[in-house]
Amino acid sequence: MLIDASFGFEMETFEFLNICQVHGFPKIMGVLTHLDSFKNNKQLRKTKKRLKHRFWTEVYQGAKLFYLSGMVYGEYQKQEIRNLGRFISVMKFRPLVWQTSHPYVLADRMEDLTNPEEIRLNPKTDRKVSLYGYLRGAHLKNKSQVHLPGVGDFALSEVSFLPDPCPLPDKLKKRSLIEKEKTIYSPFSGVGGVVYDKDAVYIDLGPNYSLQEQQRAEDPSHELVQSLVSTNVTIDSKMSTSKVSLFTDSKPLGMEDVEKTEFEMPTEERVIDAESGRVRRKAVFKNVQNEESDEDDADEESDDDEEEEEEEVNDDDDNEDDNEVDDLLEDNDDLEDTAEYNGRRATKKLAAEEPKKPDTMEMPAFADSDDDLENSEEEEIQDSDGDPEDSEDESPDEEEEEMEDSDDEVVVRKPTAALDSGNCTGEDAISSDSDTDEEPPKDMDEGSEDLPEEDAVDEEDLLKEDEDYMEDNDASEDTVGALKWKEDLKKKAAETFLRHQQSVTNLRKLVYGTVVENEDNEEDDDNKEALGGLFHVSRPDKESKRAANALDCSKFAVDGPRDWEDDEVMGSIRDCFVTGQWEDDKDAEKLLKEDEELYGDFEDLETGEVHKGKPKSQEDESEEDDDEAEDDDDKDEDKVDPTEDEETRQRIEKKKKLKERFNMEYDDGDADATYFDDLKEEMQKQADLNRAEFEDQDDETRVQYEGFRPGMYLRMEIENVPCEFVTNFDPQYPLILGGLGNSEGNVGYIQLRIKKHRWHKRILKTRDPLICSLGWRRFQTVPLYYIEDHNGRHRLLKYTPEHMHCGATIWGPITPQGTGFLAVQSVSSTTADFRIAATGVVLDLDKSITVVKKLKLIGYPCKIFKNTAFVKGMFSSALEVAKFEGASLRTVSGIRGQIKKALRTPEGGFRATFEDKLLMSDIVFLRTWYPVTVPAFYNPVTSLLKPVGQKDSWTGMKTVGQLRHELGIKLKQPKDSLYKPIVRKEKRFNQLRIPRSLQKALPFRSKPKNMERKGKVTKDKLRPAVIREPHEKKIMALLDALGTVNKYKKEKAKQKHRQQRTEFKKQKEAEEEIKRKKRKEANKRRYSLLGQKEKTRKRSSLAGKSQN
Amino acid sequence: MASQGHCLRYEGCNFFRQRLVLATLSGRPVKILKIRVKDESPGIRDFEASFIRLMDKITNGSRIEINETGTSLYYQPGLLFGGTLDHDCSVQRSIGYYLESLICLAPFMKHPLRITLRGVTNDQIDPSVDTLKATAIPLLKKFGIDGEYFELKIVKRGMPPGGGGEIFFSCPVRKVLRPVQMTDPGKIKRIRGVAYSVRVSPQIGNRIVESARSILNNFLPDIYIYTDHLKGANSGKSPGFGLSLVAETTEGYVISAELASNPQGQGAAILPEDLGKNCAKLLLEEIYRGGCVDSINQSLTLLLMTLGQQDVSKVLLGPLSPYTIEFLRHLRSFFQIMFKIESKTFEERKGADKVLMTCVGVGFSNLSKTIK
User: Residues in domain RNA 3'-terminal phosphate cyclase (chain B) (predicted)?
Assistant: First the structure.
């Protein structure tokens, strides 16, 4: 992961990390770049540290962060890159569950195989494409379901394997690769220049890599490459353009120059045409499109220009258009440019492929690139739909040229009928080779024979022969050529066929071979099985027809019962019983005897005990009976004294075994043998077995048993692909082919545990569409959020909780439980906010859902008895009531009750009992739950079908809110759900009146205390007010003042006194403390003295004793 | 959904159960055409209808379409649901017919299956419940399907034609299965069996045991055959008797054979002695075929191997029964699994040629099981 240190973490970084976390966390290494933009060293260090810690919190403590110090001359430093590469290569990957259980292919090539005629008739017809790539993850089975993210679900119509186009170097013990072996691999880049197809190998010459690297730094052409990057061309083309190697002293190449140079290439071809003078048939082009053979531009350019030769080995599919373009353009440009072009060409050598095909020719490296350049330039050409007419026009010329050029290599083009040579795909064989009986197996074998072997010689011979043949017949080349092709294979095929016959037993034929046809008939026509090709089968056997309606029973009837009382017959199964004879290595008696022979009186505590007394193992002991006697005779006869050699061998073995056991017991057996260890050991054993089981078989048979292994280079055909996939194909976007498990192609309800992402700003609303990423798939769906109540009920939520997990149910593809899940609200818009809306995990899959929402039914009492009331208005019929009999009710005032029985009138009314008497003003509630339905909306994200340049603008269904916003429709609230001020009439209660008789009976405490009102105070009882004289007033005022002063004084004195007291106390305490200390010390001294005295006393007394 | 997995088509009613079971496990719809078209009574029979009903009970979301004459059937499987169920099986076939398929499906349910089946427990056509109990259950244990609730109980016995038997089957749920290597069958160390009799003289059981022992004692002394005589409500509606024998090897594999009396009113009465002897001979025949699994459980074993992780499983079988062979073909069309079949010849006295079947599991995981 690249992080621009000068900028810091970006939102995308975190989004990426979150995506990783959801889908299983692979090991992540961060790489900090732009560190040179920091001028201040301290700041640099600070930034590094800050970023590191943030990275650690996000990934894990101690996650690796790599620092790239900066660019030198616009390039990273070589040593650093090398170190980085080394670090990446030694990273340990934790296997991700999803990846280990699903096969997947990152496609590096896509070819359109549709019949051009069909496209001509209907440009929108569904396409048939083939994809190439390395298989990873798990085993891939033919005919299995796959998902192409961004396109959709498909079934593989055919799978075959090809030899690895980019093999590892032979010798592994090297510090670094030699230049020749340095290859770079990236999807859609034309792997290593060699294109493998089912039936042929084509070489595209990659120029010397080191040369190019050196040049890139100093060469202005690098800029050219840079400029190219921004154009909308295939990576393929980019790669090849970037490989342009020029003389160092040449003038800088501009874009136009490049184009020109590239156009020259075909010119040269022409020249050579004349030399070789071969012609090719016209019709090929149409046919070619059906075929799987691949066109390739294998080229070579030797140092001397004059002997430069080229080969255009053909491609049938989309490249073809490009080639045509070449030709067109070439016509215009060739003459002027030839010289210049030749002059400029740098020496090119074959890279890793060379040793394999020493005599193949090289060709200007631009073979592909130019095409693509043009593609980018001329838009009308880009569209392959429009081309068929052109192609027809152009094909003759081009074909001719191609044919003439090639000396050694030819692309073998066969009619559709002959597309059978797929390595292991028998269905082809069946389909194509119905003409002859022997052929299917041969074809099969042939494919497997030469392709996996990568035997260049074979290949070439074949090709040559084919070529010759083609030279001979121009007109009928198509059909006859194909036949010839087959004929050529006959010998080899026969051999392999024989071999197969030997290795594969009749039984297999019985089970799989003979019935293939029959089954295929039963299944769809295109749904034929892979292996059938081995055995050509006569039409469905009558037996199976007859059996079709037979009794369905698993018992295996015995046809000819034997006479089991006969001794001979009995003898035939004698050894199946413990009383029978045992194998040498298991026969206890024999073992014992051997032991004795070898070790004399050796006694092993474990085995010895068992073997000592009895000749048989313990199990037998109990079963030993009269039978034993007769058997023993046999055994004695059978026992032969082992020869010397055998003895020593056995002794060694025995010793080994003992040693092993010893090791087991004493080394690690007792201490560490945990459950986990056992488990690990078991897994290891199983893995070994898995590896060993099919190791000795050739790939062709192997794929039948286990499917295609991870690591194989596969070619997969898919039918019924939307035409937009091909027409809007943009190699800048990775194309993944993810295999699906059984029934993972189905849709159903998925229950998820989900949590709104803590950084996502808004909570999510139920029934708002979300775009999910689940397994391989990305799709839009409508989730319902729910939460599980304590009683296990799934209650619908309107919105996701803010910080809590909740459940979600979606209608989507069946995906195994435990798979991670990620949701965004939109994939098209880029917002500043964090885009990941929610993350979660799949909990459960089902075909029905259990989410419910609350439903309150309301009724009104129509008649009230004591505790019983008749309630109306809740239901509309007696039937409905019957369903709810016994359900609990509640009123607004909190009185609980129960539904009893329906009433005749009013319709839907019922009798209910309550715990108290109702009021007519009460409202009766029935709380129930209503199941909700999840809309069956599953809309796969088909971003790869969008036109080039708009692939990231996929929008699915919009939310209601969005639509309202766009269309300007305001939500009309229902009137009663609007808030309005609540007006409440004040309730007036009547006075409480207690009857007099009751009042009398009440205890005094509870009696209403009706105090009589006080009467008016009479005048005579009123006291007169005092009115003072002025003098008296003065006196009073003075007295008042004096009193206040006195009070104040007293208070002050009191305060003072208190203060003094506290001070005194403190002083006293301090003194006390000192005294105590002194006393303590004195005591200490005294006691120590006493102790010493005591000691001395004791000692002296002891001493006295001893003296005594 | 773009591709609902292409529908498989078959003709004829044979291997009806296999097809439905495999369709359910693989999630692929299946169409069976021309069911007894040429027959006097065309269309599916009662027992098949009952089987379909059972499938409907144990699954959720299945779609089953049968045409008016009952000659064609479309089955789109749902998810296996399980739970506590009961089902009345048709008396045309024994419970074994239904149970065989249930055993295949039970480990992959959402909820552990606890099912009560009513009908015929023992008849002459299908493997009896006794045999399945003695063979299939230990077999499943080898694949890691085991637990407290794993049991098969015969509550009542019912013989044809009346039926009236009842069994209880419960099976725990597993997410994944263990790969197995069953290559060494071991040697037979003991023979067990059940001689059952209902609504007949209780002596019959003993007579069967005696006669069976007389044959088997030539090979092995450790033979114990239980007599199971049921009375009253537990004895079903029709009289009958039979014997189910099981041979157990030192490696813990079991081989079985069984024989039941003719149903009341059909065919001649069979002497219990003859039945005992014949059954013993059948067992010897089965032993002669050999392998780690007997012929009725071959397909079950192969299925469980197929549904394992992506690991190699091996099993040594006796000669493949026609049912198994067809099952292998079906496995291939449903799961794209092909077995490596090697024929093994043993030394003279070990019975018929054996077949070593090897396959790599499809990496099946129980999609129905809920995780918490």
Answer: 9-341
Amino acid at A914: F
Question: Nearest CA to CA, how far is A553 from chain B (Å)?
Answer: 6
d(CA A870, CA A868): 7
> Are the CB atoms for A784 and A752 separated by under 8 Å?
no
B97: closest chain A residue by CA: A553
Domain boundaries, chain A: 2-90, 179-196+200-407, 420-545, 569-667, 852-931
B126 inside 8 A of chain A by CB: yes
A852-931: CATH class: mainly beta
DSSP-assigned letters across all residues of A40-99: -HHHHHHHHHHHHHHHHHHS-TT--EEE---EETTEE-HHHHHHHHHHHHHPPPPPPHHH
Q: Give residue-wise pLDDT tens across range A890-946.
A: 999 999 999 999 999 889 999 999 999 999 999 999 999 999 999 999 999 988 888
Lowest mean pLDDT among A358-362, A991-995, B75-79: A358-362
Segment among A611-615, A1087-1091, B279-283 with least mean pLDDT: A611-615
In contact, B53 and B87? CB cutoff 8 Å: yes
Biggest alpha carbon–alpha carbon distance for chain B: 65
Is the CB of residue A627 less than 8 Å away from at least one CB of chain B?
yes
Q: Is A678 on the interface with B (CB under 8 A)?
A: no
Residue A163 backbone class (left: φ over 0; alpha: ψ -120 to 50; beta: rest): beta
**Is the pLDDT reported for residue A343 higher than 70?**
no
Residues whose CB falls within 8 Å of the CB of residue A813, separated by 6 or more in sequence, listed in order: A744, A745, A746, A747, A750, A774, A775, A777, A779, A938, B1
Any A CB within 8 A of B130 CB: no
Domain limits of chain B? 188-289
Backbone CA torsion sign across A621, A624, A628, A631: negative
Q: Is the pLDDT of residue A347 over 60?
A: no
Identify whether the C-beta of residue A75 lies closer than 8 Å to the C-beta of residue A36. no
Q: Which helix (H) or strand (E) holds A816?
A: none
Q: Do A573 and B280 touch (CB under 8 A)?
A: no
Comparing CA positions, the residue from B120, B159, B322, B139 lying closest to residue A557 is B322
User: A515 and B15: CB-CB below 8 Å?
Assistant: no
**Tens digits of residue pLDDT in B177-200:** 888 888 888 889 999 999 999 999
Q: What is the pLDDT of residues A394-434, one digit of tens each?
A: 444 444 444 444 444 333 333 333 333 333 333 433 333 33
Contact B339 A705 (CB under 8 A): yes
Percentage of chain A exceeding pLDDT 90:
20
A108-121 per-position pLDDT tens digit: 888 888 888 888 88
Can you read off the two tokens belonging to residue A396?
């003759």
Q: What is the ipTM of this complex?
A: 0.86
Residues in A 940-979 with any Cβ partner in B closer than 8 A: 940
Whether B338 and chain A come into contact, CB under 8 Å, resolves to yes
3-state secondary structure B327-340: HHHHHHHHHCCCCE
Task: Name, in order, each residue with C-beta under 8 angstroms of A108's C-beta and a sequence gap of 6 or more.
Answer: A132, A133, A134, A185, A186, A187, A188, A189, A191
Question: Using CA atoms, how far apart are residues A384 and A387, in angstroms rounded to an integer?
Answer: 5
pLDDT band at residue A1105, thresholds of 50, 70 and 90?
A: low
Answer yes or no: CATH 3.30.360.20 is held by domain B188-289. Answer: yes
Contact present, B101 and B70 (Cβ < 8 Å): no
In a 13 Å sphere around the CA of A370, the CA atoms on its Cβ side amount to: 26
- Would an 8 Å CB–CB cutoff place B320 in contact with chain A? yes
Answer whether B27 touches A (CB < 8 Å).
Answer: yes
Mutate to test the interface with B, among A157, A570, A577, A626 (most CBs of B within 10 A): A577
Q: How much is the average pLDDT of A610-635?
A: 42
Q: Are B281 and A511 in contact (CB < 8 Å)?
A: no
